[in-house]
Structures are given as structure tokens and as C-alpha cells.
Amino acid sequence: MTAAHDLLKRRISEGVLAFPATPFTADLAFDPAAFETHVAHLARSRPCAVVPAGGAGELFSLSPEEQDEVVRLAVGAAAGVPVIAGVGHGHAIAIARARAAEAHGADGILLFPPYLVTAEQEGLAAYVEAVCRAVALPVIVYSRNNGVIAPDTALRLAARCPNFIGLKDGTGDFEAVIGLARRAGERLVLVNGVPTAEIIASQCFAAGIRSYSSAVFSFLPEFALSYFDAVRDGRRSEVDRWLADFYVPLTAIRNRKRGYAVAIVKAGLRLAGRSAGPVRPPLIELDQRDERDLARLIEGALAAMAAPARVAAQAAAG
User: Fold this and answer.
1) Which of 107, 205, 250, 306 has fewest C-beta within 10 Å?
2) Are 66 and 31 a contacting pair, CB within 8 Å?
3) Which of the residues are catalytic?
């Protein structure tokens, strides 16, 4: 493991990973100017990393050329925040896009499960190893759905691939994840990557997993960081309040229809005054009722963030 690998591992071991949306115009063309503005806005809140072309960034709907452009623009707009490029689809495409991300200056790769195929652990390990061997960049594997990496497989990969530095867990299987954390020690960094990871953030912190991906950071970065601080500092009443008033209702909206995990991010950006345009088919937009419910949650979060500032201003005024 090189110094660069170790640096990224330490950077993402505590904090929030931001997954920017990929803005599209009304006719579903990629909007590069809007994307640069979006990434720059997120970078100002200093997440521990920015992950372009991720799930929230609609990796699955981007052409290879668009994916490369997304990574290139993110590197330029991230203002020193590490850029971890989303890569996936399958063996040949993942290798090609990983190499392109490396050429464009990305700091690491987040490797998604192979498209649709359900494979044995031996096959998944070969897929991961092929990408690791194709680049010098550090590689984090996203373990979920049809690409769940068993602890034994992760440990074998760690022994064979020096640039395999971590696992983003999307399963929420505490038995497997905690077991892997104890067996891997400092060799691998583990990231809480379940949908709406904030829901189990406190439990993960208790197990020593101190970073997570946040879709909410994409449209409410200051609020997302405030919640992270409350979890990190053990402010249990504050955490419980925002679970009840924001994150649990948000999850309920997300679960109402298939594909809402992406659409809710773009709706959130629109409601926060930073539109990233529509989602591409086969995804669909939030319906009117669901967007109204999301608007109420965002209004409550923004009001909560504004209240301390108003109190401070009143105190300063005498």
C-alpha cells in the first residue's frame, strides 16, 4: 500500500461521503456547467470525499463518454476534496472507466457490483481483482445487492491487491461487517453505505465504523454535516429528534416507489433551489404528493438550521 492509498483510507475513515447528482437538461442531455456548480457547492462544505458517477449520479444511465466527463469535471471543481470515481457495469467497461478516471486525476475508484449478473464469490473476487490490477489508484468496493462481498473474500482480496483499501457496505449486515472490521484491523476501511445511511449511523459508530455516504448531503449539506456531528459527539437527543422528524419520514418517502432513491435527491435539489434537472428513464420523478411531503421535511430542516443563527444574532444585537 502506497502513501497515497493510506492517505485516502484515512481521509474516508471518518466523515460524510458526498454523492453528487448528475444534472440533465429538459431534453435529458448532460449539463456540464450545472454539474461543476453542484460539485463546487458540495466541496465548500468539505465532505471527506466526493463520489461522481455514483448511484445518486445515475452511473447506470451515463454513456462512457459522459462518465469520463463527469469525473474530469469533478476533479476540477472539488477544490482539493478527494474525488472517488464511480465505476461499474462489467469487467471490460469497469476496467476502461477506471483507467480513464485515473487519467483524469481521480483519487480513487468506487467499484459497483457488475451489471445484473449474480455470481459466486470466486467470480466477484476476480472482477474486483481485475479492476485493482488495471490501475494504481486505491479501490473501494461497494458491497450490495448482486455483488455482496463476503468477509473471507474481502480478506483474500486485501492479501492479493495492495490497492484494495476498503469496503462500502450496502447490506446493513452487522454480523458480517463487524466481523470483517475485527479481522481486517487497520488493513481495510469500512464505510456505512446502506440507503439513508444516517438511520444506522449511531450503531455503526458504536462498532467503530465512522464514515457513511449521504444522499441528503447532495441537497442539504449543512444539515447533513450537523447530523453527523451530533452522531459523532453522542448527542443522543438531537440524533433521535432528527431521526423521528426527518430521516425516518424521508426513508418512508423513498420507499414508496422503485427508483425514488435517486429521484428524491433531484427533487431535494430542486426544492432547495439548486435544480439538477430530471432523472433519466427508466427512473421516474416524485409524484406531487411525495414532493409535497419532501418539501415539508426540507422546510423543517432549514428552519432548524436557521434558528441558532437567529438566536445568536439577537444576542449580539443586545
Assistant:
1) 306
2) no
3) 142, 168
pLDDT in tens, the chain (318 residues): 788 899 999 999 999 999 999 999 999 999 999 999 999 999 999 999 999 999 999 999 999 999 999 999 999 999 999 999 999 999 999 999 999 999 999 999 999 999 888 999 999 999 999 999 999 999 999 999 999 999 999 999 999 999 999 999 999 999 999 999 999 999 999 999 999 999 999 999 999 999 999 999 999 999 999 999 999 999 999 999 999 999 999 999 999 999 999 999 999 999 999 999 999 999 999 999 999 999 999 999 999 888 665 434 444 555
pTM, to two decimals: 0.94
Structural domain boundaries in the chain? 3-233
What residues are paired with 283 via a beta bridge?
none
49, 14 contact by CB (below 8 A): no
What's the grid cell of residue 123?
467470480
CA dist 59 to 11, 106, 151, 219, 248, Å?
A: 24, 16, 26, 18, 26
Separation of alpha carbons 214 and 189, rounded Å: 17
